[in-house]
Amino acid sequence: MDRPSSSTPATSGEVQPVPTHFLTELFTLDHLMVTSSSSKRSRLTCIAVSPHFLFLGTSTGGVSAYSRYTSARKRINSPSGPYHFINTKDGPVSTLTCIAVSPHFLFLGTSTGGVSAYSRYTSARKRINSPSGPYHFINTKDGPVSTLCVNSQEGLVAVGNDSGRVHIVSLTTSSPSPTIQTLTRDTRKLDKVTSLVWSDDSKKLYSGHANGVVMAHHLGAKSPFRTACSVVATFTEGEIVQLDISGSQLLVSTQLATYVYDVEEKTTFQTQLYSYGNLHFTTTFLSPID
């Protein structure tokens, strides 16, 4: 882990916490198959983490949710089993490709372009241990879903596809079904979407692509579907592994290096260069509460 450092000096007697970042190696997901009782034909395909739970998706359409803490708030080092299991019944024709989790919802992307939204709680704020089915299903009709990202208000879900296109799903419309809109139609200069991140105010969405391009999608003030997109930067070290944001600082992880891009000053500087062969690393900002 990198030693935390601050680019903002603190005055005498003042402690000013600022976000920093750390590096973590991306291992195979197979070692997370802790106590799975599923078939040997099932393999882990995606993972998502919330403050209290770990969600694992498999090639046969199953999603297991493991609690990270006991009722006494003690961290669980070796879970005995999932606290609930969802069978999406997607396999073998459709495979789970990605998971996104928010405080109230669980979103699952599939290899056939579908996105299922599951509610994690009842209207009485009671946790649902075994959802009977998704409360919403969205079909992007655009090939495999490669990544998902929910905004902080949980009203907008960004969907990235292998085609390079980015879709936005609105869950706050008056219509009983969600509304979907394509943000990037011309994908001649784009590749598979590998990472998505919302700005703090949800007025911008940043997408990273397999060809090293980072795009900024500017959402309209009155309608999230009135958008304009622009290329933020292009990196030559391979695909964008992960994006993160804190204020005006956009953290960009490629296969070989980490950069910080200032969206206001439009400047970029490199913070870390990797030289570990084929290993992939990601970076993320840490808030003071972390």
Characterize the main sheet.
4 strands, antiparallel
Rounded mean pLDDT score: 75
Stated plainly, the CATH topology of the domain at 1-28 and 187-290 is called Neuraminidase
Cα-based radius of gyration, to the nearest Å: 19 Å
* Strand coverage percent: 35-45%
CATH class of the domain at 1-28 and 187-290: Mainly Beta
The SSE order reads EEEEEEEEEEEEEEEEEEEEEE
Distance between the termini: 14 Å
Key terms for this structure?
single chain, 290 residues, mainly beta, Neuraminidase, four-stranded antiparallel sheet, disordered N terminus, HPS5-like beta-propeller domain-containing protein, WD40_rpt, Beta-prop_HPS5-like
Describe what this molecule looks like in 3D.
Helix content is 0%, strand content 45%. By secondary structure, the protein is mostly beta strands. It has a domain at 1-28 and 187-290: Neuraminidase (6 Propeller). The strands form six sheets. The chain has a four-stranded antiparallel beta sheet, with no helix packed on it. Strands 6-7-8-9 form a four-stranded antiparallel beta sheet, with no helix packed on it. The two termini are 14 Å apart.
